[in-house]
Amino acid sequence: MARRSLLALSTALATVSGLVSAEPGGAGLEASCRSTVAGAPRGLPAAVVLTTSCGRYQVAATGRVRFLGGRRLPVPAGSSWFMDLTWYRLEHSHLLVGRRHRLLWRSHGRFAATRGEVVGAVALSRTRVAFSFFAGTTPTLFLARLGGAEEQVARGETPLGWTRAGSLVTLSNRGGVTRVRSANGQLERLLAHSTYNFVFDRASGALLYLAHGTLERFDGNRVRALTRLPELGLGGRPTLTPLAGVVVVSGSHRLVVLRPDGALLSSTPLPRPRAHADWAPGALAADSNGDVAFTATRGNTAYGSTGSETVYLLRAGASTARAIYREHVDFAVCERQAALAWHGHWLLYSASEAHAAAIDVSRPGRFVELSPLVHRLPGMTVGGDDAFDASWSTPDGL
Length: 398
Fold this sequence. Notes:
Blueprint: H1 3-10, E1 20-21, H2 30-33, E2 48-52, E3 56-59, E4 65-69, E5 80-81, E6 86-91, E7 94-99, E8 102-106, E9 117-124, E10 128-135, E11 139-145, E12 151-155, E13 157-162, E14 168-172, E15 178-181, E16 187-192, E17 195-201, E18 206-211, E19 214-218, E20 223-228, E21 239-243, E22 246-250, E23 254-258, E24 264-269, E25 284-286, E26 292-298, E27 305-314, E28 322-331, E29 338-343, E30 346-351, E31 355-360, E32 367-369, H3 371-376, E33 388-392
Antiparallel strand pairs: 1-5, 2-3, 2-33, 3-4, 5-6, 6-7, 7-8, 9-10, 10-11, 11-12, 13-14, 14-15, 15-16, 17-18, 18-19, 19-20, 21-22, 22-23, 23-24, 25-26, 26-27, 27-28, 29-30, 30-31, 31-32
């Protein structure tokens, strides 16, 4: 397996994925970003924060819009980070690793950031850090106690994550071999050959992986077979997504929702793509009842096209999802993304093309459209490539 393929597999992890580069926020733009924005819609069940390249704007249920300040990165500027907000950067050839805004470890040795020499993946536990470093096409696995010096553990392996039991799971860059190592790096067992998809569930501290047509779960102590994939009729190469209390497994034809023990909770056929960049499911979110929402595009070519994105709701126990919201979209060129977040029986939808809406899933056809407001916010250019995201406001207003 080449380095590029291994890194692609590493980014499939739920907690070790979405690697991006952090850029400084727009603090210098703050004065011009305080422009008053009128005409916000009423009826939201809770405040929503809309973030543009200019700053953060809180929209209250009353329709009042308040400027909260400049954009805030979840990690130190200049770092690269994963979805669990573990970050790293090289500083004077030393590797720095942390989570959120805390620096947790600094390498004793030096790691050059020259062409062909890169950090592969980083996995943090409460007491240790594991990382892989590529010098050529083969990664070297390092392990260190927080506050201690790093030690080379193995060649050809990259870390996937730490189990709740304190063991480290790694992936070989050849043959998709997953291995289990102790906290000190000693090889404990070979977990599986030909692992072709996997995700670390940070909430449970367990690895979910697909091998030889079976979905299995390893919690650090034992392996449990959850289900056989051929029986699910998924089609294509299935993907795994652990959500709140459920596991979503989706292929090219079908999406299924499983309970943690592998029991089938719900399932649905997936809409057929019309253009080559159409994808379903896109965004995914589950509530505490096991209801799952997902998005699907129609007409996305990835080269600049017009189409739509639909939000679907799959109730727990159901066999078919129903469409609950549709947005007309002028799709961004190349990469674009959508997001979903629950708040009670409301669902917040947002897309990188500056679309947002709050959807009441308990009352068909009831939603609060936020896209016109988004387009009027400072820092947004309709049809441009400005940064945008939306989220439910936390108690501190962020």
